[in-house]
Q: What sequence folds into this?
C-alpha cells in the first residue's frame, strides 16, 4: 500500500482531516527525504477526492529535498517548520489532526498544540508501521547490498582472528572494514564476545585477548543507502571441545528449523516456538534467554517482533532476523543470525555466509 | 546540587509528591546505571523529611545494577518495570506525579497513566538539565580522557592523510583508531570534508580523493566511560593559497577571542557575538551559518546552547564546545573546535591539539 493510501486509511479510522508525520524514518520511507529535520503534513486535496502531502524542511536541505522528495510538495521556510505550517494556513479548517503519539513527546505535542488553538490533536500509534514492514523489491536489494558488505567483513575477520587478538581489536576492524567498504555507518555497536563473555547476549567488546579453544560470538551490521544489515556468526578459535560443538549444532538446528517454516501468516510466537522446541529438547531451554528475532529495514530494529511474547501473524514481505542462541553462564555462548524475507509459502534467506562451525587454527 | 535535592526542588515547584525519571542519560547521571532499561522513582521518605529513590531494571542487569547504582534502592522484578512499581504500591497515596515531558512520548505517558488511575501526571521539562550541565571534577576528567584519545587519533591522521586518500578512508581510520585506543564508541559519525565538501558544515564522507591544495575539515569525537569528546581541526593538504590562509586565520582569531572571554555568567548570545564579530569584521559574516557551540557530557549535545538564538547566562562548570566556522559555498570551509569548562572568571581549555594551520606535504 502506498504512503498516501496508508495515511488515508488512518485518517478514516480516526475520523481526522489531516495527519502530521514527524518520525524521521517514517518520513524517509514515505517521501524519500534522508536529512535530519523535517515534517510531513497530509490533508485532503482541495479539488479532488484524494490526499495531498506537503514536506517542510530547513535551509540546509534546500537542494537535497528537491532532489530526494517524491509524492509531496517541498517547502523550505526561512524559519521554524511548524510555525511555518501554522502561518501558511495549513491548519485552517482542520478539526481533527492525527499525530504519531508513539514518536512525539508530551512537551512537543503541547508546544505544537498551543499554536493550533482550534485543532483537536488525535494521537495514534503505528500509523505507518505495517506498511513500512512490507518491503519492496528495491528495499530488499538495499538490505542485501548492506548484508553483502557485512559478509565481506566476516570473510576478512576469518583471516585475521587468532589467539591473542583482543575483542576490542576485532571490533575496531569490524567498523573500519565496513566503512572502508562503503557502509554509511554501523547499524549498531558490534558485539565480539569470546569465551565466557559470549554468555552475555549483548556483551561489549573488552581488552580481553581471545584464547585458543574459545568460541567467539560476532554480531554486526551496517547501514547502506539507509537500510540495515545484521548478522551473527559464532566461530571457534582452536578446537572448542565436545559440549561447545553440541551447543553449536543445537543452535544451528534450531535456526534452520525456524527458517524452514518461516513464512507470511505464521504467528510470531509459533515461529519462535519452532526454534525454542529444538533447544528445549536438547536440554538447553533455560539458556535461550531472548526472542527469536526482529524486523529490520530503515531501522535495525523494527516491527514485527519474533517472540514468545507476541502472537500476531507475521506480515508478507517483511525482512526479519532469525537468531536463536544458547548462553551458558560463565562458560560460553552461541548465536546464529540470518535475515530472511517472508513470502506467502516460505521465506528467502538474504544471508549467504556459511553456517558450519568454522574452527580458526 | 545533588540528584535528590534537584528533584526535590522540582517536586516543590510543581507541588508534586513523587517523580518518575525515565530518560536514560539522566538516570545514568543521577544514580550511575549504564544499562539500556530502567526507571528511577523518587518520593518522600516514609520516616523522614528527605526523599528516597528506587531504581527498577530487568533481569539482564541484576549484577550490573547492584554494582553501579548509588543513591537508590535497586529492584529487579521478573516482569515489566512500570507494572512492578504499580503492583508494589509505589503510587499508593501519590496525588501528583512529576514526569519528564520532554523525554516521554504521548503514547508512553498514556500507557503509564492508564495504570495509575488516581494519580495526576504532571509533565515538566528540563528537570535535571541544569544540574547535569554542572560537571564535577571527575566528570571533567572523563571528558578529558575521551578527548585525549581523539587527540591521539588526530596525531595519527596527520601521519596518514595525503593527496589521493579518500574522505571515506580517513573516516574509517578515525573509527578504527578511536576504538582500538579504548573508546567505547564514536560520539557521532565523523566528518571528513575536503575542498568544496568542506563548505557543508555536516558533510558526510564520500569516496572523493583529497587533492593537493585542499583544506580538510575533520570533526570527530568518542565516548569513554560514558563521556563524550568532540574536536574539529582543519588541515591543508599541500599549500592552500592566500584566501584559504586568510579564512583560517580569521576563524582561529574568532575562536580564540571567544575562548578569551568565555566564563560562567556571560550570556549565550553575547559569547556567540564575540566570535561572530571577528568573522563579520573580516567580511565573512554571511558564511558563519551556525551557532558557536553546545554543552557536552553524557550526551555529545547537551544544554546549554551557545548561539545568537538564546540569551540565558551560561552556567558555571559546564563543558561546552567553541566552534566557529566559515563556509564558502562550492569552494572550501574552515572550522576549529575546542572543549572548554566555564569557571567564574575564565574557562579551562580541555583541548590541547595545535591550532596553527598544519600543511601536510
A:
Amino acid at each position: 500500500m502506498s504512503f498516501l493510501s496508508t495515511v488515508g486509511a488512518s485518517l478514516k479510522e480516526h475520523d481526522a482531516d489531516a495527519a502530521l508525520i514527524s518520525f524521521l524514518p517514517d518520513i524517509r520511507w514515505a517521501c524519500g527525504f534522508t536529512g535530519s529535520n523535517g515534517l510531513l503534513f497530509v490533508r485532503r486535496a482541495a479539488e479532488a477526492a484524494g490526499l495531498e502531502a506537503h514536506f517542510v524542511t530547513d535551509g540546509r536541505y534546500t537542494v537535497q529535498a528537491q532532489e530526494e522528495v517524491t509524492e509531496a510538495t517541498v517547502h523550505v521556510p526561512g524559519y521554524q517548520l511548524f510555525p511555518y505550517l501554522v502561518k501558511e494556513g495549513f491548519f485552517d479548517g482542520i478539526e481533527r489532526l492525527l499525530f504519531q503519539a508513539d514518536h512525539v513527546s508530551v512537551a512537543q505535542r503541547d508546544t505544537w498544540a498551543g499554536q493550533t488553538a482550534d485543532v483537536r490533536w488525535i494521537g495514534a500509534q503505528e500509523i505507518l508501521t505495517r506498511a513500512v514492514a512490507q518491503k519492496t523489491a528495491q528495499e530488499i536489494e538495499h538490505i542485501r547490498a548492506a548484508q553483502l558488505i557485512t559478509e565481506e567483513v566476516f570473510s576478512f575477520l576469518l583471516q585475521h582472528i587468532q589467539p591473542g587478538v583482543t575483542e576490542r581489536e576485532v571490533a575496531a576492524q569490524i567498523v573500519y572494514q565496513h566503512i572502508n567498504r562503503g557502509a554509511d555507518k554501523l547499524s549498531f555497536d558490534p558485539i565480539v564476545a569470546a569465551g565466557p563473555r559470549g554468555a552475555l547476549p549483548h556483551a561489549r567488546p573488552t581488552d580481553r585477548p581471545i584464547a585458543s579453544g574459545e568460541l567467539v560470538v560476532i554480531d554486526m551490521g551496517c547501514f547502506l543507502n539507509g537500510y540495515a544489515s545484521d548478522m551473527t556468526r559464532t566461530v571457534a578459535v582452536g578446537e572448542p571441545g565436545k559440549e561447545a560443538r553440541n551447543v553449536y549444532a543445537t543452535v544451528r538446528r534450531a535456526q534452520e528449523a525456524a527458517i524452514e517454516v518461516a513464512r507470511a501468516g505464521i504467528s510470531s510466537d509459533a515461529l519462535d516456538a519452532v526454534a525454542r522446541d529444538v533447544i528445549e529438547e536438547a536440554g538447553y531451554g533455560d539458556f535461550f534467554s531472548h526472542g527469536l528475532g526482529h524486523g529490520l529495514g530503515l531501522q535495525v530494529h523494527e516491527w514485527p517482533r519474533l517472540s514468545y511474547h507476541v502472537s500476531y501473524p507475521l506480515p508478507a514481505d517483511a525482512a526479519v532476523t532469525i537468531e536463536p542462541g544458547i548462553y551458558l553462564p560463565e562458560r560460553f555462548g552461541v548465536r546464529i543470525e540470518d535475515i530472511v524475507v517472508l513470502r506467502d509459502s516460505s521465506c528467502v534467506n538474504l544471508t549467504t555466509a556459511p553456517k558450519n562451525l568454522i574452527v580458526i587454527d
